[in-house]
Amino acid sequence: MNIEENKDLTALNTFGMSVKAKYYIRVSSDEDVRQAVLFAKEVNFPLLVLSGGSNMLFTEDIKAVVIHMDTHGIEKIGADGTDTLVKVKAGENWHNFVMWSIDNNLAGAENLAFIPGRVGSSPVQNIGAYGVEAKDVIESVNAFDVHSGKNRIFSKKECLFGYRESVFKGADKGKYIIMDVVFRLHSPEGYSLKLDYGNIRSELEKRNIITPNIADVATVVTDIRRAKLPDPEKIGNCGSFFKNPVLDKKTFESLKEKYPDMPCFDVPDSTDEHYKKVPAAWLIDRAGWKGYRRGNVGVHENQALVLVHYGGGTGGEVMALCRDICADVKAKYGVAISAEVNIVDASFLHTVY
Ligand SMILES: Cc1cc2nc3c(=O)[nH]c(=O)nc-3n(C[C@H](O)[C@H](O)[C@H](O)COP(=O)(O)OP(=O)(O)OC[C@H]3O[C@@H](n4cnc5c(N)ncnc54)[C@H](O)[C@@H]3O)c2cc1C
User: Fold this and answer.
1) Ligand 1: distance of its center to the CA of 34 in Å?
2) What is the Cα–Cα distance from 14 to 53, expressed in whole angstroms?
């Protein structure tokens, strides 16, 4: 295990923010993870777990031990009826895992193709796209408790999954390092493909695919995403910067009356308090921010939800823009929007000693 000091993290976060980590350890085995945590305890530094760096905004140098997850392995570990259980190490690239599932003729993850990042982060924020969330395919999560040094298996229920939420981001934030995830994938026979979200169906029709299979869905989703979302290799970004707000019934109805064209989505198990979800992109776009640029940062010209870094900027500049957008949306629509991306400053770091 190699411990690097003052490591430049520019290439390790998709926003491309130039910050340094006091200590950086790339871990390629479970034992490395244990040793890295012991090292953090020894030097009395907090921890930061870094995977693909595609959901983190670095706002300053990281005075921590950064553990970079690079463990690999995908293994079928059992069957349950027509389902297959697959254990995947945390450092595997998410899209590679999805493509592995397609190559192995296993259904369930195809709508989640081409989401950046690594497998270990997928439960943290319960990644989702095109009507499917990681929770729909996760069976359990094996996590290392940084305080006790013991592993704990979380059942799906114990992960407390919600919209871009989980116990790993909530009550137990920073307490666990996810080592591997077990997925429950299905036999394609008798499995219903999810084609009704976004333009999956119309893309399939354009390609004259009448009876699509899981590979067709993964290909179409990948192509749509490539065309729609900015490539972090070309322009720094973390995908959707903001969460879609869930409105209460009263706020939703009064806004809908004012703006009949306002799109909305149903919320599972909705109540008057949590009534409908409204696209933050619509609110930000309508408030006039799409394509706005301020110095080194801005709002993407085609995607109002995506904040971008043109280079040479700082996380502080992105945060200043984020705050102004949130305040403007609140003033114009009375709706509070918030960041989906993890804002990494001193308060984000987790102390292990
Ligand atoms: C162009 C683009 C498009 C995107 N599209 C989507 C999308 O459609 N849907 C979606 O949900 N997200 C999307 N994202 C966001 C991002 O891809 C996901 O949040 C992804 O899961 C982040 O993975 P990562 O490995 O990069 O995590 P990181 O950014 O490295 O980490 C994210 C968080 O998880 C923690 N973490 C990471 N690994 C572990 C671990 N092993 N154990 C414990 N904690 C850990 C980190 O400490 C941090 O808090 C997009 C991002 C980009 C750049």
Assistant:
1) 22
2) 6
Q: Residue 142 is part of a domain; what is its CATH number? A: 3.30.465.10
Domain boundary among the residues 210, 228, 246 is at 228
Q: Ligand 1: does its nearest atom lie under 6 Å from the Cβ of 118?
A: yes
Whole-Å CA distances, 40 to 22, 36, 47, 70:
11, 6, 7, 18
311 dihedral zone (left: phi>0; alpha: psi -120 to 50; beta): left
Q: What is the pLDDT of residues 116-171, one digit of tens each?
A: 999 999 999 999 999 999 999 999 999 999 999 999 999 999 999 998 899 999 99
Q: b vs e for 76-102, b when ≥16 Cβ sit within 10 Å of the residue's Cβ?
A: eeeeeeebbbbbbbbbbbbbebbbbbb
Distance (Å, whole) CA 74 – CA 237 = 29
Distance CA 275, CA 327 (A): 22
Q: In what order do the strands lie in the sheet with 297-299?
A: 236-237, 307-309, 297-299, 293-294
* 340 catalytic residue (yes or no): yes
Per DSSP bridges, beta strands 138-145 and 62-69 are unpaired
Q: What atom in ligand 1 is closest to the CA of residue 127?
A: 11
53 lines ligand 1 (CB under 6 A): yes
Place of tokens 């031990």: 65
Same domain, 164 and 121: yes
Q: Per the structure, how many domains does the chain have?
A: 3
Final residue of a structural domain among 228, 259, 282: 228
The token pair that represents 57 in the structure block: 């905004």
- Enclosing domain of residue 50: 3-70
This model's pTM is above 0.70: yes
CA of 68 to the centre of ligand 1 (A): 13
137 and 193 fall within a common domain: yes
The rounded mean pLDDT for the chain is: 96
Per-residue pLDDT tens over the stretch 242-256: 999 999 999 999 999
Q: Using the mean position of ligand 1's atoms as its centre, give its distance from the Cα of residue 53 in Å.
A: 7
